[in-house]
Design brief:
Number of strands: 9
Helix content: 25-40%
Strand order of the largest sheet: 3-2-1-6-5-4
């Protein structure tokens, strides 16, 4: 009997490195969550895991995607901020509706390397690494777009919390 054990814990946290798609014993799409302390399987598909995390922090995946588009103009493979206060920024490697989509935490990436067969090796700051079936150029673009979005969102948050700038910013006043 070779049955997969699923964790009852199914959360995306600041320690999450990536959420990878896998297929369960019954053929359903499930997730392998890679975090700084290990990895575990959940019964939820990767994009469902991200949706649950967004809802935990008071929004939805669609709401986070819409916010990114509004702030950074990104409309495809949209990176999101699950929770900017704890640095939880993730991006999809493919369209989130694609069952092969991997979600990667921008915060934990040390560097990318080209791998065989048009794949990319993602090296994390803690030494762990994964290979994703996405070209190096596409992955580099996703990392850069996520960095730009983080910068723009952080600038907006800083302006909002700065009393001397509130009256001068038409985005912050009605």
């Amino acid at each position: 009997m070779n049955e997969t054990l699923y964790s009852e814990v199914s959360e995306i946290t600041p320690l999450t490195l990536a959420v990878l798609p896998r297929y369960g014993g019954n053929g359903s799409l499930v997730s392998c969550v890679l975090d700084a302390q290990g990895e575990y399987m959940t019964r939820y598909a990767p994009t469902k895991m991200i949706e649950r995390a967004c809802k935990f922090f008071g929004s939805s995946l669609e709401g986070r995607q819409t916010g990114t588009t509004e702030i950074a103009g990104i409309t495809h493979k949209v990176p999101i901020s699950v929770d900017p206060s704890s640095g939880m920024y993730l991006f999809p490697t493919l369209s989130p509706i694609n069952p092969k989509c991997v979600w990667i935490s921008h915060t934990h990436i040390a560097r990318l390397r080209e791998a065989a067969n048009q794949c990319t090796e993602v090296l994390f700051k803690n030494g762990k690494k994964i290979i994703v079936d996405v070209s190096y150029g596409s992955m580099t673009n996703q990392v850069n777009r996520t960095a730009q979005f983080r910068y723009l969102l952080n600038e907006r948050i800083q302006r909002h919390h700065s009393p001397q700038n509130r009256d001068d910013d038409p985005d912050l006043t009605e």
